[in-house]
Amino acid sequence: MPTKTKKKTKPARKGGDRAHRYTAKTADRHELYQLSVQNVEAEIDFVDATFTQLRGRPGRILREDFAGTANSACEWVRRRETNSAVAVDLDEPTLEWGRTHNVERLDEAAQQRIRLDCADVRTPGSHGRGVDIVLAMNFSYWIFETRDTLRAYFESVRDSLDDEGVFFLDFYGGSDAMSETRETRKINRHLTYIWDQAAYDPISGHMSCRIHFKFPDGSVMNNAFEYEWRLWTLPEIRELLAEAGFEDVLVYWEGTDEDDEEQGNGEFTPVKTGDADPAYICYIVAQKKALKVVETQERPE
Ligand SMILES: C[S@@+](CC[C@H](N)C(=O)[O-])C[C@H]1O[C@@H](n2cnc3c(N)ncnc32)[C@H](O)[C@@H]1O
Fold first, then answer.
1. Which residue among 42, 130, 193, 207 is least packed, with the fewest CB closer than 10 Å?
2. Which of 229, 234, 231 is nearest to 283 (CA)?
3. How confident is the model over 64-116, as pLDDT tens digits?
4. pLDDT at 11 over 70
5. Ordered domains of the chain (ranges, CATH)
6. d(CA 270, CA 167)
7. How many CB atoms lie within 10 A of CB 20?
């Protein structure tokens, strides 16, 4: 996933020095993904605090859509004994990896509060009602490439939420997002992550992206993950959420690091207008019912 070349990087995951024993042949791609792409602690910090601010109480039931290894859902149930989660993904082997490597590392009680379901996010079955929070992170919803398919997914999320429910998505944009380019980032001394925007078609907005990993012995795990999706714009997503019936759609923009204006500071606040950053990641927070009027800043600080 993109991590901002110029500005506003999702904070690096803590303790990312575990992949030392790997070469391209022996490494586990899911472990590498969790180390280099995800920061579920920071993500759940934001989700937990924002929901509590909006509703005056903590959330309880969370659904992680496009869950992959269910890393965020595990972090949610780890937080509080009143928290429960369901993680939904189409790919059973990836969910199975999550059961073995993430769920089984939770304490017994937390394991009872999480379920991993192999299903399409548009037909979530038994967890299709009364959910407090739905997550669609790391731009996974971009696999829906037409307005109709994306709106239909958003409508099914709205229907799944309790009336007090909130939908959280992340978004990547800026002029860099539209270029065919590679971003290389050293995760630790044993692992280099390569985000490859391999092809972009300005007419359809279709984009092909890849993740590769490089190791100290010179070996490379090419195409560890491949994505075919549409590069949407932020106004399009806001409009589609509104068309799907979300009564309030807010954008939370990242502040700027005091010492380095090229970097984000990890703090996201609701804004009316953004900055023309060449690369940014922001959160979109959609309330099913506009139960709280949120004060937005004119511009990010
Ligand atoms: C980029 S991964 C997301 C992993 C993780 N949630 C994250 O934030 O990094 C996208 C996942 O979406 C899943 N997926 C794609 N289409 C789906 C659908 N229609 N329903 C459920 N899962 C889907 C894929 O199997 C894949 O595991």
1. 130
2. 234
3. 999 999 999 999 999 999 999 999 999 999 999 999 999 999 999 999 999 99
4. no
5. 19-173+232-287 (3.40.50.150), 176-229 (no CATH)
6. 15
7. 11
Whole-model pTM over 0.85: yes
Distance (Å, whole) CA 210 – CA 81: 37
Residues 172, 176, 180, 181, CA torsion sign: negative
Residue 91 in contact with ligand 1 by CB distance below 6 A: yes
- Ligand 1 pocket mutation, candidates 89, 96, 153, criterion most atoms within 8 A of CB: 89
For residues 204 and 202, give the distance between their C-alpha atoms in angstroms, rounded to a whole number: 6
Distance from the alpha carbon of residue 37 to the mean position of ligand 1, in angstroms: 14
The position carrying tokens 């082997």 is 93
> Two tokens at 250?
């807010």
pLDDT (tens digit, 9 = 90+) per residue, 15-40? 455 556 789 988 999 999 999 999 99
How long is the chain? 301
